[in-house]
Design a protein that fits this description.
The chain is α/β, with parallel strands linked by helices. The protein has three domains: 71 residues, Rossmann fold, CATH 3.40.50; 204 residues, 3-Layer(aba) Sandwich (UDP-N-acetylmuramoyl-L-alanine:D-glutamate ligase), CATH 3.40.1190; 134 residues, Mur ligase, C-terminal domain (Protein-Tyrosine Phosphatase, Chain A). It is 34% helix and 23% strand. It has 15 helices and 19 strands. A nine-stranded mixed β-sheet has the order 6-7-5-8-9-10-11-12-13, sandwiched between helices. Strands 14-15-19-16-17-18 form a six-stranded mixed β-sheet, with helices on one face. Helix 4 links the parallel strand 3 and strand 4. Helix 7 packs across helix 8. The radius of gyration is 22 Å and the shape is globular.
Length: 430
């Protein structure tokens, strides 16, 4: 929402807004001239020609009730996308923000006149001023509430498919259907061929008579863009990329998390299709500064333990982060986890137990409710009870202060502390 607000303001439109609490991003928007109130802002909403709201806002919200005209965020993004010559939309249950950020960085370095709409922040970049022209829009395509079906991208990317939103999808098959419909709205689809997007989409396609160009990437021989040998050490990942069986080049990304090699591969595939010089792509990936809250080192505790924060909120993401944390740890991996939404906690309860069990110590905090109430699913204490049956070192803390005190008394200089969750404010644990 903040990025859409900043973009709209940059086009000469007077913008106002409201949020539940004050934050650094609100201060930045105010510095751009946006009038923002904390809490109820009926007066601003009543004066506005259009009120844009997110799917997290209840329909009985006073600002929506008094508005002359309203539009949901996903539809507003779709309207903005129509103003660009080309649209590249990055979808996937995991990795959207990282890949959208990587691709945006590549296009920035290549001096392409594009605009970026990213759900996170590239480190060291003015993320509220990502307007460089209207040749192309690079945007995240979020599957929540089927938001991405408002887009019709020239290049649509499907990084992966997972059951991550039980509050709006019935099961994994329902999730696949939505991603396949997104694929069918695209001119060219770039997808990891571990996921059967083309097979599902083709079944629908035959019924409606459409045509989509499919391009695959991945780590198997059937991929058009294939990930080759990966050499990872000391935060440097070197990897080969083959295009139709021929070595395209060797690439480097700086990260402890090996999943970023696959993220880089998807960016290389899209950049090649778009026509960006591959030497420029190679140099850009090697200088990519990373994304805030994506395996980001925040500093040290008073005990000397290193603190790394990550947005991971799904069991598959948690497993990847803990694996990467092992590369930093001399002794133990201590994971502080705040589940995100009650419905996800309930639907994936056993998977959370399996993924978190790979950690040496687990510190659990109450579920971040986001848009939900406790009756929508399961509280974190149930996760604590189940996890206690499979490992000894698991504790439940009722809040940040208790978790902070526990870490101060129970970690050492040889530990790495992973603070993970979509709503977790890791700075409050330092």
């Amino acid at each position: 929402m903040s990025k859409l607000c900043a973009y709209t303001q940059s086009r000469g439109v007077i913008c106002t807004g409201s949020d539940a609490k004050n934050s650094e991003v609100l201060q930045k928007l105010r510095s751009l001239g946006v009038q923002i109130e904390v809490g109820n802002a009926e007066g601003l909403a009543r004066k506005a020609d259009l009120v844009v709201y997110t799917s997290a806002i209840p329909k009985d919200c006073r600002e929506i009730k008094v508005a002359k005209q309203t539009i949901e965020r996903k539809s507003y993004l779709g309207k903005i996308a129509e103003q660009f010559d080309k649209v590249i939309a990055i979808s996937g249950s995991h990795g959207k923000t990282t890949v959208t950020s990587m691709l945006s960085w590549v296009m920035m370095q290549a001096k392409i006149p594009f605009t970026a709409h990213i759900g996170g922040d590239i480190i060291g970049v003015d993320n509220l001023n990502m307007y460089f022209g209207n040749e192309c829009l690079v945007t995240e395509a979020c599957e929540y509430a089927r938001s991405f079906l408002e887009l019709s991208p020239d290049i649509g990317v499907v990084l992966n498919v997972d059951f991550d939103h039980p509050d709006c999808y019935r099961n994994i098959a329902d999730t696949y259907l939505a991603f396949s419909l997104f694929a069918l709205r695209s001119g060219t689809v770039v997808y990891d061929n571990k996921y059967n997007i083309q097979m599902v989409a083709n079944g629908i396609d035959r019924l409606r008579g459409g045509s989509v160009n499919y391009v695959t990437f991945g780590d198997n021989e059937q991929s058009k863009y294939k990930l080759g040998n990966i050499d990872s050490a000391n935060g440097v990942i070197n990897f080969e990329v083959f295009r139709e069986g021929v070595l395209l080049d060797n690439f480097t990304v700086y990260s402890y998390n090996e999943i970023n090699a696959l993220c880089g591969l998807s960016v290389i595939a899209v950049a090649d299709i778009y026509g960006i010089d591959m030497q420029s792509v190679k140099e850009s990936l090697a200088t990519f500064p990373g994304v805030k809250n994506r395996f980001q080192c925040l500093g040290l505790l008073s005990t000397g333990a290193r603190v790394v924060t990550d947005y991971a909120h799904h069991p598959r993401e948690i497993s990847t982060v803990i694996k990467a944390g092992r590369k930093l740890s001399i002794d133990r991996v201590v994971t502080v986890f705040e589940p995100h939404t009650f419905s996800r906690t309930k639907a994936l309860l056993n998977d959370f137990v399996d993924s978190l069990s790979a950690s040496d110590v687990v510190v659990l905090m109450p579920t971040f409710k986001a848009r939900e109430v406790a009756a929508d699913g399961e509280d974190c204490y149930k996760l604590y009870e189940l996890l206690s049956k499979s490992m000894d070192n698991v504790v439940y803390c009722v809040g940040y202060e208790e978790a902070k005190n526990y870490l101060a008394k129970n970690t050492t200089v040889n530990d790495v502390v992973l603070t993970i969750g979509a709503g977790l404010d890791a700075s409050r644990l330092l």
